[in-house]
């Protein structure tokens, strides 16, 4: 099935090439583009990407078309980023954590307790000065950032262990996103990090390869982790945004008007996403509690904040992220 899809996407890519190169001779022919991502179609991010598609097609009066492949059909986040680099797909939505291997600046988002509150985080992520500081850092790697989508607050969840303070995490086999900073984060909390792609987490929890993971509430419901992990702890250790990225050559080949449609559709879909996200997280919590038997716990957050201080300090000193770090701090974060 995956091979068939990849072949299909390759043919579509050829079509994109054809339609863009024959642009002047057949102006009426739509430009077809492909977006692949790893969440199920019930997930709020998928719904917001559908908003992006519909807004784009509406604004361009059908001149730009977008086909979305959800559910990791095209591969893991890393694989689809690589497909975006080679223009096998034109867009993908990935966690900022997955971009760390392509531009170190993105590692900053995995810094524990970077943002003071979710409101601040949202406000900052929408500022053009912040977007400019991150989105073009991958242009030499074949893609650029287009917009961000709130991916919530990341919290710990376990199969069996009850966590009240950071001490309770000692030796806990915890899945992390495949990024250096995510590994460092769990190490600094005394756990044993196990990097793996998101699609593998359910089975790894079920088979006991890992005992814990960390993510927003929808991981319990949309991704079904609540079937195997019954304890969710509000450590609130990070807010790692999702980033919509696009192949840079495809972007540059578009007319200014077409680029504007993309930017506007992206910005509007980001705004629609925020209230949807809040509503969906509330629903996820209710479903997890009432239908899946998951218990939600408050923890002694200060013990977690204390343990990650050295990691936070290493970010403050890191040349590769200093400019972006200072910009984020300047946005009223250190009030
Ligand atoms: C979030 C994020 C995904 C990512 C996942 C993960 O759910 O939205 O893009 O894959 O975290 O932990 O890997």
Biggest sheet record: 5 strands, mixed
CATH superfamily of the largest domain: Bacterial extracellular solute-binding protein, family 7
The average pLDDT value, as a whole number, equals 93
Oligomeric form of this entry? single chain
N-to-C CA distance: 53 Å
The low-confidence runs, each spanning 5 or more residues with pLDDT under 50, are: 14-26
Q: Approximately how much helix is present in the residues?
A: 40-55%
Number of strands: 11
The structural domain count equals: 2
What can you see in these coordinates?
The chain has about 325 residues and is an alpha/beta fold. The protein folds into two domains: about 1-150 and about 240-280, Bacterial extracellular solute-binding protein, family 7 (D-Maltodextrin-Binding Protein, domain 2), CATH 3.40.190; about 155-240 and about 290-330, 3-Layer(aba) Sandwich (D-Maltodextrin-Binding Protein, domain 2), CATH 3.40.190. The protein has 14 helices and eleven strands. The chain has a five-stranded mixed sheet with strand order 2-1-3-10-4, sandwiched between helices. The protein has a four-stranded mixed sheet with strand order 8-5-9-11, sandwiched between helices. The protein has a two-stranded parallel ribbon with strand order 6-7. Helix 7 links the parallel strand 6 and strand 7 (about 190-195). Helix 6 (about 130-135) packs antiparallel against helix 14 (about 320-330). The longest helix is centred in the C-terminal third of the chain and has 37 residues, at about 255-290. It starts with a helix and ends in a 5-residue tail after the last helix. Bound molecules: alpha-D-glucopyranuronic acid. Alpha-D-glucopyranuronic acid (GCU) binds next to strand 3. This is TRAP transporter substrate-binding protein. InterPro entries: DctP_fam, TRAP_DctP, TRAP_DctP_sf. Keywords: Signal. Pfam families: DctP.
């Amino acid at each position: 099935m995956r091979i068939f899809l990849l072949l299909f996407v390759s043919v579509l890519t050829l079509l994109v090439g054809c339609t863009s190169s024959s642009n002047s001779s057949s102006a009426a022919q739509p430009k077809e583009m492909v977006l692949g991502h790893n969440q199920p179609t019930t997930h709020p991010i998928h719904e917001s990407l559908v908003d992006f598609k519909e807004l784009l097609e509406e604004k361009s009066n059908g001149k730009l078309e977008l086909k979305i492949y959800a559910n990791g059909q095209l591969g893991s986040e890393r694989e689809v980023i690589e497909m975006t680099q080679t223009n096998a797909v034109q867009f993908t939505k990935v966690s900022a954590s997955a971009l760390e291997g392509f531009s170190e600046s993105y590692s900053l988002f995995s810094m524990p307790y970077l943002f003071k509150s979710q409101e601040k985080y949202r406000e900052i992520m929408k500022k053009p000065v912040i977007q400019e500081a991150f989105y073009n850092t991958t242009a030499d790697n074949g893609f650029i950032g287009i917009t961000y989508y709130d991916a919530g607050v990341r919290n710990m969840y376990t199969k069996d262990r009850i966590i009240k303070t950071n001490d309770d995490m000692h030796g806990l086999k915890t899945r992390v996103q495949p990024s250096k900073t995510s590994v460092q984060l769990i190490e600094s909390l005394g756990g044993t990090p196990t990097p793996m792609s998101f699609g593998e987490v359910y089975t790894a929890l079920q088979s006991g390869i890992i005992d814990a993971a960390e993510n927003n509430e929808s991981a319990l419901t949309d991704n079904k982790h609540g079937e195997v992990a019954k304890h969710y702890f509000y450590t609130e250790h990070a807010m790692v945004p999702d980033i919509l990225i696009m192949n840079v050559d495809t972007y540059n080949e578009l007319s200014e008007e077409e680029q504007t449609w993309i930017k506007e559709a992206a910005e509007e879909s980001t705004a629609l996403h925020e209230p949807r996200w809040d509503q969906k997280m509330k629903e996820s919590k209710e479903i997890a509690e009432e239908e899946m038997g998951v218990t939600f716990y408050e923890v002694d957050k200060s013990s977690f904040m204390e343990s990650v201080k050295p990691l936070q300090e290493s970010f403050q000193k890191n040349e590769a992220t200093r400019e972006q770090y200072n910009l984020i701090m300047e946005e009223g974060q250190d009030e």
